[in-house]
Design goal:
By secondary structure, the chain is mainly α. The protein is 83% helix and 0% strand.
């Protein structure tokens, strides 16, 4: 919906709005759950989609000339996957994102266990923990929004992923509520830097005619891997306990970040070429 010059700021703005709701929503929900129960919270959530639908109906987007139709929908999907596989920078960014989404993101699924059984805080504690993670993510989104160029984002990815892993391990073994909440600030910040930087880099490297297909792969990796990660985390937490499960998640994120960093020299030049090719079009 926006031009390439505004792409980074638009992605950061989108992330900011998303995480502003994550700051406010969980804190309110934690109080409401304790006062009126979960059912009414789900009801309010359902009613809120009226605003979403209204906003979609009000949107006016500039029409663009459609590209040449593919042989079939499956052929179009295959073309998107081929672009990902053939281009090292795109493949590397999506692989790192996939590992973080599969192993790191599901820590939020286990958050109720930490709030109730480890920190002994109940629904209000859960709301505060989610709120602190959201505040960190919001700060990360605003940090991305303050950037005006792509230079350096390739280095941000492994650093943010590694920092995310470190904070997950710290959170896993904290038994003090406020310490756990404070640890979630840098965890949310690092998580948002990794996700937002991945999104920005991919959209900057992909040709216009393939952007929808490649970003669908991004969505599949980012959002599609999370349910599988949640399932694995639940099984692992039942067998080994939540702290060890989140510790393992942090270790995997750190390992993935380390591998990406070792390949950074190989990734950097092809990434510059892809970005330059899109700017020249």
């Amino acid at each position: 919906m926006v031009g390439k010059a505004d792409l980074m700021n638009a992605i950061a703005l989108n992330s900011s709005l998303f995480n502003a709701s994550r700051v406010i929503g969980p804190a309110i929900a934690g109080i409401l759950v304790a006062m009126i129960g979960e059912g009414w919270c789900f009801f309010v959530n359902a009613v809120s989609y009226i605003a979403v639908i209204t906003g979609l109906l009000m949107m006016t987007v500039e029409e663009r000339e459609p590209g040449a139709p593919g042989a079939s929908a499956l052929a179009d999907v295959a073309e998107g996957f081929r672009f990902v596989v053939r281009n090292l920078p795109v493949r590397a960014v999506l692989t790192l994102l996939g590992v973080v989404s599969l192993t790191g993101m599901p820590y939020m699924v286990l958050m109720p266990i930490f709030a109730d059984r480890i920190l002994h805080g109940g629904p209000r504690a859960l709301g505060w923990l989610m709120g602190f993670a959201g505040m960190g993510a919001l700060a990360g989104a605003l940090r991305l929004a303050s950037r005006t160029e792509l230079k350096g984002l390739n280095r941000w990815l492994p650093r943010a992923s590694f920092a995310f892993g470190v904070t997950l391990i710290g959170f896993a073994w904290s038994h003090a509520f406020w310490l756990s909440a404070l640890i979630l600030l840098p965890a949310g910040f690092a998580m948002m830097i990794e996700m937002g930087s991945s999104n920005t880099l991919l959209q900057s490297m992909v040709p216009d005619e393939l952007r929808g297909r490649v970003m669908s792969v991004y969505s599949m990796v980012f959002m599609g891997m999370a349910p599988f990660g949640a399932l694995l985390s639940g099984v692992a937490a039942d067998r080994f306990g939540a702290p060890w499960t989140v510790t393992g998640s942090g270790v995997f994120c750190m390992l993935a970040a380390t591998v990406y960093w070792t390949q950074l020299k190989r990734i950097r030049e092809p990434a510059r070429q892809l970005i330059a090719a899109q700017r020249d079009r």
